[in-house]
Amino acid sequence: MGENAAANRSRHLPTKSPPTGTLRRDYGVPMYLRKYLIPILAFVLLLSNAAACAPGPETSPLQPDEPNLQTTTPELRPELREALEDLADDNQDVQETAIQTLVEMGSQAVPALTQALENADAEVRWAAATALGEIGPQAAQAVPTLTRALEDPDQWVRLASAEALGQIGPQAAQAVPALVHALEDEDAGVRGYAALALGEIGLQAQEAVPALVQILANERENQEVREFAAMGLGRIGPAAAEAVPTLVQVLEDQNAESASLRSAAAGALGGIGPPAAEAIPALTQALGDEDEFVRRASATSLGLIGPEAAVAIPALTPLLGDEDWQMREATALGLSLIGPQAVPALVQVAEDGEWTARETAIRALGWIGPQARPAVPALIQILESTDDDLHGFAVEALQSITGQSYSQDAAAWRSWWEAQQ
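Given the sequence above, the corresponding structure tokens read:
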């Protein structure tokens, strides 16, 4: 494998971004640049509950003197055989096209890619792990081989294998012990992606919580690895409740260099949900953090903790008119997730706030749904007002709350509401 091939691996590895597809990223880009994902990740942290898959069929490793994959897989379709051979190409475009082709083949390519994980060429092993990860849960039969690859002598193969196990998700649960061991890898990138993979496996990775907490608490650990440990804990969800005190400690650390770590901690607390109720004071305080990502993640996470976060309503309400539209959205979501206890404060803003805050409050009431029924008279009154720009938002909220549809006919809404009394 030449220098060009090694450079390809450093430039082209799978993304951890939520969108599906075969996006690529430079591993030279600091992981902390992903901090914009924290508020988004908070929404999906509680959703991991699929069963682990059974081990796939064992495959024999290729011998070092075998020239390529064709001699061991003569039955493969020509396009599959060609793509597998191109995994070893030093040309970045050729290799990337091969990976894309194999990913598009999905489960049909998994057996051959699993075998390729044991190829003598590290470049082929790395590319195979990359493709399997992008195939995702359909590549579950490769979990045993990917697990062994966490011990590969090549750091890029180990990293891509940890990445792939995370992308496979809960069906990679049998890899949890090996991923916990990978948290001690000499390479920071491998440690970080092992931490995130454990989170993506979810509840079945509960045994990893103590090790992840240890990483998070270790101030000598690479900060980006600590961020990924926090994200992993959040994705494990309520079962990671023992991490709450450490996450609070990190959130309260005002070191100027730790803003991205604080945002990861804030998002993780929301992922843990109601068991993180002891973090409500710290999250409320963080609404005033100097970092925009910390503020947004804190607002969303207060909502994910649920009704117990109602004590934070007075601190959240003024942020409905924040100059940052993303902060307004995070605040509206947080208040709507707290639920009916937020309705009186939202109604007050909808009636008396400045225009931007009123619009945000109205939408939040709609997100609460039927439990925001006490807001109906105020919303009808807004529809009857001369604030035409708010009428559309008021109608959407009324429809969500009542299940009725009278468009912008204020008289019809008023007549219906009076008939309900």
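The longest helix spans residues 388-402. Try to locate this feature in the token string yourself.
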